Every structure is written in C-alpha cells, then in structure tokens.
Amino acid sequence: MVIGLKIRIELAEGLPEPEVIIRCAELDDTVRSIQKAVQEVSSGAPRLIFYREHEEHYFSPEEVLFFETAGDGVFAHTAADVFRVRFRLYELERFLPRHFLRVSKSTVLNLHHILSISRDLSAASLVQFRKSHKQVYVSRLYYKV
Predict the structure, then answer these.
(1) What are the pLDDT digits (tens) for 79-120?
(2) For 6-124, where are the E strands, in sequence order?
C-alpha cells in the first residue's frame, strides 16, 4: 500500500501525445506496477493472460507457436505447453502483431516460429515449428494468404 501517493494532471496545449512522468524517491515494486499498468493502457492491446488449471501465466505472446480453438475454448500452444486464453480467435487477430496469421477456421499461427511447410495441392498443407514436435494444417482456402 502506498501512503501519500499524489496524482497530478496538467493540460498542455500543442503536446503531440500524452506524457506520463513518475517522480519517486526509489524504484520499488509499487512504482514498477504503476509503470507496467501505464504501458499496458498506452499500448492499446488488451492484456493477454494464459491459464493452465488454476494458475495464471504471464509471458510474451511471441513465445506462442499458434492459437487454436478446441472444444469450447481457445488454446495457446508454446513449444512445450498448452494454455487456455479468454479471447476468441477473431479477437486475437485484432490485436496480435501482423506476423500472427489465420491459417484455418480454427488456427492462428506465429509466422516467426515456422520451420517448414509441406505443400499438398489437393489437401491442407502441414506446418512444422522450430524446437517443437507440434504441427498444424493450413487450409487450402487460407494458404494463398
């Protein structure tokens, strides 16, 4: 709990973008939490939390190989684990970086982790990832993209 925290807002005409300044005697956990919260709000992207059983996990979406729908949920696959996320694929597409690409009705993958694509003109193409045994299929309808 922070005692004596002051918040002051100054209006400045002609300022190209808002600026947040934090003045403090020391850089402690509270100040770091405030900094992180401001960065999350200013990024415009919702916070992505990964769930496994009764645990919340926090890591960069860049570690995700692909997101897929399965059953009643959306799951994020890293090289070694699987986590549930609380967004639908179309919501993830809106705020994830451009190198996350929809490759089927049920899959959005991270192009930065692709090791190979085995093309099959009559069926879906197989994508394999670096440092993982996991693989996904690219639908013929999405392959051109």
Answers:
(1) 999 999 999 999 999 889 899 999 999 999 999 999 999 987
(2) 50-52, 55-57, 66-70, 73-77, 82-85, 100-104, 107-110, 114-118
